[in-house]
């Protein structure tokens, strides 16, 4: 049987640890095809990807990935369970038979996931604490430490999706080596104008130098305008705007000088910074529940890049795939990609490079800018 391996990534930015992860997959599992579902221009904790999806795709293809597919905004800017739901669905549609992900500790994910699926997922919420910490207690009772090992949480949710949907996908892991610099640390160094050349491959260094490196503060004035110019009713209609948070947003935005000040002012035990970053992103982009539901109800595969092996696999996949497979954006695709086109256009207010129209997949590792 042809070994089709897939993984989920943000590559924010692509660094030496990612290259090592790809090398380890090839050394340990010898896949015939290696597919990456990669977050587009926005990432799971409600941040902007520091460089655009095309730059990160180029680095991935040149580092050994055969096929890169975009994880849409509706999936990528979500808590772990919905992030995993969208990611695994796309990987299943891509025909993988093996999932691989990194983990900080050796853990029997299949056994723990099966145990949790057999357990009543409802639990008594302690309203003196955040939902995330309450949920962490449930995971702790199952033997997981998701606060100190966040990749365990994503890995667990991936496996739960596979089991819940009876997907014929085997689960494999690569142990993450301790002592490596994280993508968060690299982004902080970039923001502080520190040298990070020893931490990232040359191809990513070139993209970082050639493009605008974006952060939330680049868009803070736009967020402030969005909140100040909206009525309470308009803000209430934003996706995931619950429990009167629209009033808190209106109250605190005038007092805040930057995005971190705003998060600090709005944050409480009930709401983590990650959740509030996502909510701020939905607010900036004017995202409604209908926008998110539309993507979940009408999935598609947006191809960002491939090498020769990936191209051959795509040609075979076209004969059996039953959801749209998109390699370029035209009038026909615009309705299906309406949310992605909107959020990419807002990103382009700061990073002015076109993200969708006229762009074709990166081929053979050659950037098609």
From TrEMBL:
UniProt EC number: 6.3.4.-
Keyword ATP-binding: yes
Function: Catalyzes the formation of N(4)-acetylcytidine (ac(4)C) at the wobble position of elongator tRNA(Met), using acetate and ATP as substrates. First activates an acetate ion to form acetyladenylate (Ac-AMP) and then transfers the acetyl group to tRNA to form ac(4)C34.
GO biological process: tRNA modification
Cellular component GO terms, alphabetical: cytoplasm
Presence of the UniProt keyword Flavoprotein in the record: no
Catalytic activity: cytidine(34) in elongator tRNA(Met) + acetate + ATP = N(4)-acetylcytidine(34) in elongator tRNA(Met) + AMP + diphosphate
This protein's name: tRNA(Met) cytidine acetate ligase
Keywords from the UniProt entry: ATP-binding, Cytoplasm, Ligase, Nucleotide-binding, RNA-binding, tRNA processing, tRNA-binding
UniProt record similarity statement: Belongs to the TmcAL family.
UniProt-annotated location(s): Cytoplasm
Main location: cytoplasm
Positions bound to ATP: 8-21, 102, 151, 176
Molecular-function GO term, any one: tRNA binding
InterPro entries per UniProt: Rossmann-like_a/b/a_fold, tRNA(Met)_cyd_acetate_ligase
């Amino acid at each position: 049987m042809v070994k089709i391996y897939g993984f989920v990534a943000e590559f924010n930015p692509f660094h030496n640890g990612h290259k090592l992860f790809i090398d380890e997959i090839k050394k340990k599992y010898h896949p015939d095809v290696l597919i990456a579902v990669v977050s587009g221009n926005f990432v799971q904790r409600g941040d902007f990807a520091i460089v655009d999806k095309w730059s990160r795709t180029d680095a991935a293809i040149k580092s050994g990935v055969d096929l890169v597919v975009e994880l849409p905004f509706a999936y990528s800017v979500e808590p772990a369970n919905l992030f995993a739901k969208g990611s695994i669905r796309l990987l299943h549609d891509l025909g993988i038979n093996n999932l691989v992900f990194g983990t900080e500790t050796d853990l029997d994910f299949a056994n723990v996931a099966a145990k949790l699926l057999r357990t009543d997922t409802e639990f008594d919420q302690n309203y003196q604490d955040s939902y995330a910490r309450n949920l962490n207690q449930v995971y702790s009772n199952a033997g997981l430490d998701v606060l100190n090992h966040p990749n365990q949480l994503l890995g667990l949710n991936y496996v739960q999706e596979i089991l819940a949907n009876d997907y014929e996908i085997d689960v494999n892991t690569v142990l993450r080596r301790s002592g490596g610099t994280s993508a968060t640390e690299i982004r902080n160094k970039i923001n502080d104008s520190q040298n990070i050349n020893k931490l990232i491959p040359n191809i990513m260094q070139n993209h970082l130098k050639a493009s605008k490196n974006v952060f939330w503060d680049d868009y803070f004035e736009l967020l402030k305008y969005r909140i100040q110019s909206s009525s309470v009713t308009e803000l209430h209609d934003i996706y995931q705007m619950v429990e009167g948070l629209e009033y808190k947003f209106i109250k605190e935005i005038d007092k805040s000088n930057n995005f971190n000040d705003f998060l600090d002012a709005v944050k409480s035990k009930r709401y983590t910074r990650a959740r509030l970053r996502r909510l701020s992103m939905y607010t900036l982009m004017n995202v409604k529940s209908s926008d998110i539901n539309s993507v979940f109800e009408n999935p598609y595969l947006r191809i960002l890049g491939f090498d020769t092996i990936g191209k051959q696999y795509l040609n075979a996949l076209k004969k059996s795939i039953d959801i749209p497979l998109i390699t370029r954006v035209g009038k026909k695709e615009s309705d299906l990609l309406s949310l992605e086109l909107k959020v990419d256009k807002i990103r382009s207010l700061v990073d002015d490079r076109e993200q969708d129209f006229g762009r074709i997949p990166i081929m053979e590792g050659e950037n098609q800018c």
